[in-house]
């Protein structure tokens, strides 16, 4: 698989400041940056920083970030699916998961999530992969956003669409447990038909759902 990491960067204006979107970046580079104190969706900023460093140094791990001065204010991670999830069962080298995307609350008006995803797809290597993300409503910041489940789902779907990810059906029990949950997928232009067949076989383990 094409795990070669070609670095990209782009500037973005926000509230009179120039932000830098860059990646994929190394664990060493993440170590040199501060992590914004508002990045607490998954764990404390210090613990999240350690997690990002470990992902960045995996052969397939890709982390793209938004930086304000010397502080990471948003990030997106791409990594192989968790071994405990059904998506890892086919052992597909060409299947990557968009594991996490987070933007500090102070920067949410800048559409940094959409910008990060659009930026991530500049990398030609993504054309070799099927990229998935699994969206579960219980992970969403409904309280902080003031949005209903369906409003938040619409925002998430629009953001993922910016990166070329589209809704796909699945019989995965966790996703099927609530109608707002969903699987979103981007299929790279160089992904083979046999890879798609393997992927479809894990999307639907109950053949009657086809």
TrEMBL record:
It holds the Pfam family Acetyltransf_1. Gene3D superfamilies: 3.40.630.30. Coiled coil: none annotated. Residues 39-119 form the N-acetyltransferase domain. It comes from the Bacteria. GO terms for biological process: acetoin catabolic process. GO terms for molecular function: acetoin dehydrogenase (NAD+) activity; acyltransferase activity, transferring groups other than amino-acyl groups. InterPro entries: AcuA, Acyl_CoA_acyltransferase, GNAT_dom. This is Acetoin utilization protein AcuA. It comes from Sinobaca qinghaiensis. The lineage of its organism: Bacteria, Bacillati, Bacillota, Bacilli, Bacillales.
């Amino acid at each position: 698989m094409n795990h070669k990491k070609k670095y990209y960067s782009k500037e973005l204006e926000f509230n009179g400041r120039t932000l830098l979107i860059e990646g994929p970046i190394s664990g060493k580079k993440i170590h040199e940056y501060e992590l914004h104190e508002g990045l607490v969706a998954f764990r404390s900023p210090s613990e999240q920083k350690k997690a990002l460093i470990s992902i960045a140094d995996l052969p397939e791990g890709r982390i793209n970030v938004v930086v304000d001065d010397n502080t990471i204010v948003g990030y997106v991670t791409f990594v192989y699916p968790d071994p405990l999830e059904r998506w890892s069962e086919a052992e597909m080298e060409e299947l990557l998961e968009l594991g996490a995307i987070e933007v500090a609350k102070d920067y949410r008006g800048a559409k940094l999530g959409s910008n990060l995803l659009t930026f991530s797809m500049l990398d030609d290597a993504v054309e070799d992969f099927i990229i998935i993300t699994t969206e579960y409503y219980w992970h969403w910041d409904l309280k902080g956003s003031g949005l209903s489940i369906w409003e938040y789902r619409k925002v998430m779907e629009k953001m993922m669409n910016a990166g070329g990810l589209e809704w796909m059906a699945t019989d995965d029990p966790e996703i099927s447990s609530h109608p707002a949950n969903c699987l979103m997928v981007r299929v790279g232009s160089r992904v083979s038909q046999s890879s798609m067949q393997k992927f479809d076989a894990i999307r639907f383990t109950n053949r009657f759902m086809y």
